[in-house]
Structures are given as C-alpha cells and as structure tokens.
Amino acid sequence: MQIDIITLFPELLTSPFEASILKRAIQSDKVKVNFHNLRDYAENSQKQVDDYPFGGGAGMVMKIEPIDNCLNHLKKNNSFDEVIYLTPDGEQLNQKISNELSTNQNLAIICGHYKGVDQRVRDHLISREISIGDFVLSGGELAAAVLCDSIIRLIPGVLGDESSALTDSYQDGLLAPPIYTRPASYKGWDVPEILTSGNTHKIEQWREDQAMDKTTKQRPDLLKD
C-alpha cells in the first residue's frame, strides 16, 4: 500500500511514523507513506496557500489551486483508490471504514487547516470525507496519523499475530472482553478462574459473554442492528 499525505505542516506527521508498528510496517515495505508540502505547489512566489473567504468572515480558507496542482502531480504516477479529505463534518471513522480502506493499494489524504478548504475541493477533487470525531482540531495532521494507524495495522503481515486484530473491539460489532496476564493473583485481585482452567471452549464462551455484557452496558448503540 502507498499513502500520500498532503499537508501544510509535514513536520507534525513524522514522529508517529517513526516508532512502533507504523515504523516496522514501513521498514518491512508493507506500506509506503509520503508527505507532500502543499506550499511546494503554490502558484505565486510567496507560496500562498490560503486567502480570505468570499463574503467576509473570520479565518482563512485553503485555496483550491495548490491542492489541485498537487493531486495532478501525484496522479501522474498513481491512480488513487480514494482521495480523502479529513474534516470534522465528514463520515465518522469506525472499524468498518478502516477495514475497507486497508484493502486499497493507493490512498491520498488531504489535511485541512485554518477554516478548511475551498468548497470546490470538496465538490470536485475528493472521493471521501472522514472525521475522527465530533470535535475540531487545529488541522488535519493528527487526524491523518489516527486514520493511517487504524488502516496500516490491518494490512496482512504488519502485526506479529494477524489474528490479534480480529479480536479487537468493533471487529465483530462488540467491545472486546476483559484481558489479563500474569501474575494470576496480585494484592488479592485474582484473574477469573475460567481463564486459567485450560478449557478452550469455556474460555471462548466466557469471552463472548463478557463482550456482550460490556457492550450492553457501555455501548448499547452498537447492538441496535
């Protein structure tokens, strides 16, 4: 997979990709992540990428020309499965979307900033709008890191045990059950006996029951369907 991230501040994105699972995924060539500074595609000598909104109002708006120039440049070598704009009013990211995107080969991600992008970018240049929650960030860079992490970890071969992702919360529409590790007893707080019984069938049943109980209490909305 290749992911091209278009941003005004590539320095905000480097750190998340230089450690842990994302770093290993890149080093093992499971994914290639490129950062593209939008200012490199500005059309004037001042590298201007924003301007005042028509009709007045507070804040600045990202211009369409640099974004279009950047995408056209990238499309000379790539055919994108999705061109994603990260915005608070997009469809809210969930595990189903991450699963779907992880099967693609080429993704482009546009990080908004200021008051956002010229509406014509959204109308004509992108294929999908995604939000990581009902709140506003200073820019789309942190959201891009979240989105990429949720996608890359699902690529086959990225996790040491591929079955690990299948037992995560939301994969089966439920929250994950409680998990424990050694020691079996600590300060009088004991691990449920069933987990040390060695009875695989009963352990799986216990986990299913716990997942359902936890979801019912904490996220009953997930059970509507």
Structure in words:
This protein has 225 residues and is an alpha/beta fold. It folds into 2 domains: 151 residues, 3-Layer(aba) Sandwich (Alpha/beta knot), CATH 3.40.1280.10; 57 residues, tRNA(m1g37)methyltransferase, domain 2 (Trp Operon Repressor, Chain A, Orthogonal Bundle). Helices cover 30% and strands 18% of the residues. The chain contains 7 helices and 9 strands. The model has no long low-confidence stretch (mean pLDDT 94).
As laid out across the biggest beta sheet, the strand order is: 2-1-6-5-7
C-alpha termini separation: 32 Å
Q: According to CATH, what is the class of the largest domain?
A: Alpha Beta
Estimated share of beta-strand residues: 15-25%
Gyration radius, in Å: 22 Å
The CATH architecture of the largest domain is 3-Layer(aba) Sandwich
Structural class: alpha/beta
CATH topology-level name of the largest domain: Alpha/beta knot
